[in-house]
Amino acid sequence: MTKEEKNPTEDSNTDNDVPVFTAWNRWYALVLMTLIVIIVLLTIFSRMFV
Amino acid sequence: MRTGDWIVMCSAILFVVVYSIIKSRGRKNIHDFVLSGQDARWFTVALSVMATQASAITFISTPGQAFVDGMRFVQFYFGLPLAMIVLCITVLPIYRRLHVYTAYEYLEKRFDLKTRSLAAMLFLTQRSLAAGLTIYAPSLVLSLILGWNISYLIISMGCLVILYTTFGGTKAVSWAQSYQILIIFAGMFSAFVVILMSIPVSLSEALSVAGVSEKLNAITFSFDFNNRYTLWSGLLGGFFLQLSYFGTDQSQVQRYLTGNSLTQSRLGLIFNGLLKIPMQISILFLGVMLFVFYQFTVPPLLFNSSEPAKLQGTEFERQYQTLETEYARTAKRHEQTLRNYLNQKNTQNEVALRESKQQLAQEKSELANLRGQAALVLKNHHPHANTNDTNYIFLSFVITYLPVGLVGLVIAAILSASMSSCSSEINALASTGLIDVYKRLIDKNATEQRYLLVTRLMTVFWGIVIIIFAQFADKMGSLIEAVNILGSLFYGTILGIFLTAFYLKFVGGTAVFFAALLAEVIVIVCFVFTNISFLWYNLLGCVFVMVFAALFQAMMRFKNSSQKIS
After folding, report:
1. pTM of the model
2. How far apart are CA B244 and CA B488, in angstroms?
3. Fewer C-beta within 10 Å: chain B N or C terminus?
4. Within its chain, how far is the Cα of B234 from the centroid?
């Protein structure tokens, strides 16, 4: 049985594997940064070979 | 296909089918069958989510899309990472906490039965239509290569998918997807390497050719609402489409609910957010390189060779052959102009470069004109001739230029992609049919064995329904666009219902039910009577539902309070 099944109302960020809220914020920031970097690189790339 | 190709293709497909059936034996109850016992780790969740979204259409149609329209289609996916973050923070914890089997169960807990049933019905309609396209695409491949009847192929493919999905449920789908995605990556990577090796100029020159032909137009900052793919329609419209698809479409919800904890489900979605855009860029870039290859090799006048073959022995055959000769001559001249352009680029001769660009543009329009005339000849012979060959471009290259063995691998990759997403869809349709229709409305107190039997019967039923829809898929133009247009007609409304549930706490079931009906009618009217790009329907449908729901709720309160006063 997983932890959340034992206590369904418990805050999700106390899960075993990634215990603190800031760890998730870092993941979300990584996803956002990757998106921004991709858009910037694609913009440069699409104008480089015109 | 040669013997080597058959061996590679059949071994890959049969291994996946048999392996998934063996690994998924012993499903005893609907928790096992629908949610795979919730024992998956994050990488299984991530692979399963990616394999469900990336159907055969992605691999057949996307390179063709890049060939015709450049890389701007990538903007369609920009909303996906944002949607993953919102899902991880808001929707996923709610589903996990409530221990739901389907997304629509939540709606009854929040609103009422009729809203749950409406959302489930919209899903069943939209998904069964889209699943028809999913199964049509690989059948199209085989019909082109082997000259078989496409209807029989659709039936054969459908039966294979129905077999392992009915036998092993979600577990079989997940096990199969883990291997299917490996076959897909291997097949596409091999094709990409062969294309790069076949281009007779250096990579930087190839990029220059793509650039001057406007195929590297990945980002468009225009605010034009009629422009289908711009940065803004991708970020905003795409965000709502992806949020709706991943947050409310049971074929995806079911995938990430199989995670063995909230953490594993979240990590699965985050990795999907990180990998999806690079994957699409790779496939589109493959299409662009294919375009460059055909600038130095005379392409067929029409990539779908089956249509010109029908002209044989008719009065139109000669006209078509004349056009083919003219097209080949113009393509050769175009190649020479391109080579001159590349030489001038190396010598930095600005005046000559400008002249070459003008000449390239003129030849491009001549080539397009000849293709238009060829399409007209085909239409004159047969008014319903299929002259849209976007979906045939990549496959035409595969069967003509790939070495023995690799053709089989690429075909196996395309079949795997189709089977993976189609099995998820059938699995989700059956689960929704069981949980939201049969178990909720027909028989609440049946035994687990009976529910299991009903789910398996529903899997077979939905498999047959999508096989029937697939028979009509060839009238829908570019397949990848058709799927997304179809999704956009319904997703906005479904998302609007869910966002109202999450964020407009004062709205009740009756208000949101009628708001959803009205919003769906408006979206369909917009689709039929306006030219608004389809990505905006997701935003419009969603906003309409939320605004109307709030208005209706306010009106109902006002009416109630007036009655109390009087």
Report:
1. 0.83
2. 9
3. C
4. 15
